[in-house]
UniProtKB/TrEMBL annotation:
CDD domains: BFIT_BACH
InterPro entries documented for this protein: HOTDOG_ACOT (IPR033120), HotDog_dom_sf (IPR029069)
MF-aspect GO terms: carboxylic ester hydrolase activity; fatty acyl-CoA hydrolase activity
Protein name: Acyl-CoA thioesterase 9
Highest rank taxon of the organism: Eukaryota
PROSITE patterns found in the cross-reference section: HOTDOG_ACOT
GO biological process, one term: acyl-CoA metabolic process
Domain HotDog ACOT-type, first and last residues per copy: 81-206, 286-398
Amino acid sequence: IFYRVCALSKGLLSPGRGLNQGFQDSRKQGTFHIHEVRDKLREIVGASTNWRDHVKAMEERKLLHGFLAESQKGMPPRRMKDSYIEVLLPLGSEPELREKYLTVQNTVRFGRILEDLDSLGVLICYMHTKIHSVEMSPLSIVTALVDKIDLCKKSLSPEQDIKFSGHVSWVGKTSMEVKMQMFQLHGDEFCPVLDATFVMVARDSENKGPAFVNPLILESPEEEELFRQGELNKGRRIALSSTSLLKMAPSAEERTTIHEMFLSTLDPKTISFQSRILPPNAVWMENSKLKSLEICHPQERNIFNRIFGGFLMRKAYELAWATACSFGGSRPFVVAVDDIMFQKPVEIGSLLFLSSQVCFTQNNYIQVRVHSEVASLQKKEHTTTNVFHFTFMSEKEVPLVFPRTYGESMLYLDGQRHFNSMSVPVTLRKDYLVEP
């Protein structure tokens, strides 16, 4: 899954990916420029570019409530190709764009790519739910979950054009799964770099309650397979939620793992449960933390005047990258992102607290968990908004991380579960680099 050749970009479907080339001849809308995506979203929901107009804009959206469907049955079905769009990020042909995406190592900032994927996912869903008789959409579509992001390569050159594509691959009553791909120009053709699966939810015009979305028509065996994958993904998420360590005890195998780790840290000289020492080449989990604070300014708002989810992902990723770099002692390379649940929106003016921690390591791999919580300027209570999971690979073997408390042991097992969910182990190649 991680080192596909360019020829795959010519195919219609490959495992876990969306449909791409098969839609290009039949689609009517042209390719969007990356700058047009956010502009198009503002146009669809009637959002203003001026912060002082946001109250008036949201009042106008209340008038759209009458266009919401009372049930899904009466809504016109859509095809997958109806939501298919392509977006060009012309880093090569428009060098002035590079500054925003450039790292000091002359690679592309992956945090910026996360922002672009978030915006693209929302736009794709608005293409699926478009009402032709209404200029503005009555729906408020927001990101609910980043199910999985896998990198096919780890090379992102800041001097070659990048192309995104994606479409709705599964729908429920009020939710949609979106599959997106990213390609980078290599010679005269675009080669696959990244696969992403997001889950978006539709809410009413005031973003206060759920709203129905158009059903999906399946037109080919490939589309039926994609839809089936969407159903399986939903079932998998439900199963994982029910077996969460916040709800159920660890398995027998996991309990054995934790007990063996505990025994390996006991001091043989004292024969005491209280005296703990680290094995060689190991670090206590509590010593692998980094924290940051962000003030949520209006500049980082989304089209519904909350903090942009892509901004949250970028900040969490960059803190995770710094944590992995500090822990491993060398530049880490992102391998996978998964299970980012957007539990609560972040209001403008909030204080955003990010806490990053290495929770599992194996050979060259570092699993990092970032916990996000907010506090308003008026209230002192902290509320969790997101939990992010990132898998990195270091250039060299990294120390083992050991939990000291029961709570840290649960974090370790949770990190192990996320690491084991990674599609395929990665072999590091020095010519493939993805940086923050």
